[in-house]
Predict the 3D structure of the following.
Amino acid sequence: MSDHHHKETFITKYVFSTDHKMISKQYLVTGIFMGIIGVFMSMMFRLQIAWPDTSFSIIEAFLGRHQDGGVMSPDIYLALVTIHGTIMVFFVLTAGLSGTFSNLLIPLQIGARDMASGFLNMISYWLFFLSSVIMVISLFVEAGPASAGWTIYPPLSALPQAIPGSGMGMTLWLISMAIFIASSLMGALNYIVTVLNLRTVGMTMTRLPLTIWAFFVTAIIGVVSFPVLLSAALLLIFDRSFGTSFFLSDIFIQGEVLHYQGGSPVLFEHLFWFLGHPEVYIVILPAMGIVSEIMACNSRKPIFGYRAMIGSIIAIAFLSTIVWGHHMFVSGMNPFLGSVFTFTTLLIAIPSAVKAFNWITTLWKGNLQMNPAMLFSIGFVSTFISGGLTGLVLGDSALDINVHDTYFVVAHFHLVMGVSAIYGMFAGVYHWFPKMYGRMMNKALGYWHFWITVIAAYGVFFPMHFVGLAGLPRRYYANTAFPLFDDVADVNIVITLFAILGGAAQLIFLTNFFMSIYKGKKAEQNPWKANTLEWTTPVDHIHGNWPGEIPAVHRWPYDYSKPGQEKDYVSQITPLYEGEEES
Amino acid sequence: MTALFYILLAIVIGIAIWQIISIFNLKGAIATEKDNNTQGILFAVFGVFFYGLMIFSFWKYSVILLPESASFEGARVDNLYMVTMVLILFVQAITQFLLFYFAFKYRGIKGRKALFYADSHKLEMIWTIVPAVVLAGLVLYGLSVWNDVMDSSDAENPLIVEVYAKQFQWEARYAGGDNELGRANVRNIKGINTMGVDMTDKNAIDDIPTRELRLPKGRQVIFKFRSQDVLHSAYMPHFRAQMNCVPGMVTQFSFTPSMTTEEMRANEKTIAKVEGINKIRAEKGEDPYEFDYLLLCNKICGSSHYNMQMKIIVLEEADFNNWISIQKTIAEVVQE
């Protein structure tokens, strides 16, 4: 691993690389590519929602036989929302976010030469790549891709008679996700082992940056919950292909009774949400870690309440595994269970509140350096609060009855885990780009990117709450069948315009990202004047990260503006000064 | 015209790319004091925009919201909702203000040193305990409403109605004179017996199948939900009622209608909403709309999910009894 003279070919360096830094870039670029597809899909179905029955040549050009004179068909509309959800949740915000930054930062910030198993790490990425390819291929099958919603509830997802996307498209979806889960488990095991075993001298658990704590706990939740989704997917494959009845019973469709007897779709919902809910924390915790780190650095202040931050990460992770039933208040499960899940769900608000207040206090009396990463971190806290608070409505079973599956839910989760996690990801990219590519991203473009995105995101999701409170269900191809919702049409147009604006703003990011790789300003070793270990490595990547010995760590990562010090930052590798007390 | 539009669009995109590249060539990467100043001020401006957007949305979009609940149980839900919403908006207003204000106020200045403030057990205790106490209250209140809504075991002489879902249609079955639904299973579906009612069950004989839902005001209705193919969700937003319809099992929900359709049409909020809708419809040259309660599908169920609805009419109890007494029983329907 530390053999610096090891000869590398193009293939081993750029393709089948076992170097965590290269794998992290591979995750990021694949994630960005999938993100482009996912966001583009949302633009298309937003056009349909705002202007149903209107012809768009862009829809004609991209949807081929799934449209009629520029108007998309209802089936492909459902397929687009399904694949948009799947891609954004799993491929962008799980693999793209966690895969990129866990891989990049775990070895660099704990002081390790690489991941515990570079080979497993490589396999993990290539399985993710394979699953991405299969998911993209599924867009092109005859009957269209999976279209039962990203939650793929059977019987809809099990019966091609019920919706055409449940044929080949669904089969490919299940195969892709099974491979994805394998990839994610390999990644997670690697992260856990690396954090536990490969920390450098002096890097105790309470000297770890909050990023590492977040990635570490995220990996644990992944290992606990992803296998359950795999089992659900396997049982669904059995129901679909081998005639078992795990999730199906008493079905009469297209004039005939099917043989299924004794299964229950509610069982599937339990299995799905046992992953599905922790999944949103798998998405958001890494973003929280990234934001904590960037906020401290750019405020030139220690993160407020370091230990409380760790405690709340652990508390959120623990609670996340016992709240899945709040997605099922009206599924027909016993109302008593609803009571239990309401209780556990609202408990999550406590550690979340602690985190939000600690972030705000971190800003207080800071000396804020307004780098693009910092702007996105502040944006993160704002959307996390805005989206998180409406969780008090949805997590309360009595209130959920009337807003369940309406646009209120869509607005809530997009703000709290979609937009927030994307902001976390952007913050991470702007902040660690110099570490990844040895060059800097352009700040002016970063500012434009941030402000347009933040206005567009609120412009989309704030009014959307009202659409939900008007009673409009999500996943409606059009609301033209209901005069009751005629007055929602104007709001939907506003939302779509903001969505297009927000989508277009990402072109600024893409230009900035790809141009900076080749033409960005050369980075210094520690451009943000940060304390953490990754900034002690050379700008140009080397295998094994540090040229000589791995430095030992003497202090926690948040000694910013420490009294008695001349500089406003003290690297973790600086020994305590005489008479200095460790914070 | 379209060609002109595309030419203009191409020009706009061209200018945008040119601008992006020329900005890129400025090469700046790390925020300077000037940037800190500008961006800090922008956060203050954005804070104003943010509150403006919230206030504007509440002012502009309140009219599209659902009118007050048309069921007694729903009224309790609405109260809980109001309490929760006040709390949410209070916390939202304060935290967002602090966030944007700090971003503005503490924007970086060269040479200033930030306050080294790493911990305060007192503060952290405050924002652990205060939310915990508030949430405890919210949980208790919420659960009391939830139990009230979900528990119909003490209902006196409730009306039993089956709501039956299939792609992409609703049907209903009243329990009839004995107020007990006959057994049913999809395996009995045959011809006109579309809900698969077991005609050998004596409870089934007097059941009444219908294609619309009429409910008596003031009498508790217990709904039994079934589905014959995929998951559906019976969503009756005006009554704050929703329950999934699950193939292979019977689910249940109940409420007591508190306003007839006529009364709801005369409701102030409904009138305002309907006026708004009819203004839009008039512009499009469509017929005016008259308010009706609806049952709609709220669980993705296939191509026509977006058009799976059934009208609900709430009547005075006497009118309801007159109506139900002239409906044909399933035995009569099947015999015909």
